[in-house]
Design a protein that fits this description.
Elements (H helix, E strand, L loop, with lengths): L4 H15 L4 E2 L1 H8 L3 H13 L3 E4 L5 E4 L8 H8 L23 H18 L2 H4 L3 H7 L10
Antiparallel strand pairs: 1-3, 2-3
Organism: Pseudonocardia sulfidoxydans NBRC 16205
Protein name: DNA-binding protein
InterPro entries: Tscrpt_reg_Rrf2, WH-like_DNA-bd_sf, WH_DNA-bd_sf
């Protein structure tokens, strides 16, 4: 299973916000830190805001910030919010055109595999994947690496 850039960028935004001063940042700063397209990131952040993962504020002093503590946001929450399709095989999707769909046991195997995958993602919070605060601040080139969120 491969996720879209939207899911990848959403995780990057949340990791950035977790270690940013006041857990806030502008889309421009986040895009620069991750060396990704600001336009693309803007779309991702809008979708994240619609899913209540972040809050956005316009104007001076505005930006993107966490809606809730990063320890309560799971990787599974993010992937579910950012992806539209988890049908790893056709018979798990809405349209089922497989000739053996009713007599094949593969659907159950793949359904359990997807359930297990999300069970694992639900065990990991943003805090878990972004635990190296100083390392992240350095990699993201924060000017004040010791600033506490």
């Amino acid at each position: 299973m491969r996720h879209t850039q939207h899911a990848d960028y959403a995780l990057r935004v949340l990791m950035y916000l977790r270690v940013a001063p006041q857990r806030r940042g502008s889309i421009a700063d986040i895009a620069t830190a991750h060396k990704i397209s600001r336009t693309h990131l803007d779309k991702v952040v809008r979708r994240m805001a619609a899913a209540d993962l972040v809050q956005t504020t316009r104007g001076r002093g505005g930006g993107v910030q966490l809606v809730r503590d990063s320890s309560t946001i799971t990787v599974g929450d993010v992937i579910r919010a950012m992806e539209d399709d988890f049908a790893v095989v056709e018979c798990l999707g809405a349209a089922r055109f497989c000739q053996v769909a009713g007599v094949c046991g593969a659907r159950n195997v793949f359904a359990r595999a997807v359930d297990s995958y999300f069970a694992e993602l639900d065990r990991a919070s943003i805090d878990d994947i972004a635990a190296n605060d100083d390392g992240l601040r350095g990699a993201l080139e924060f000017r004040n690496r010791s600033a506490e969120p």
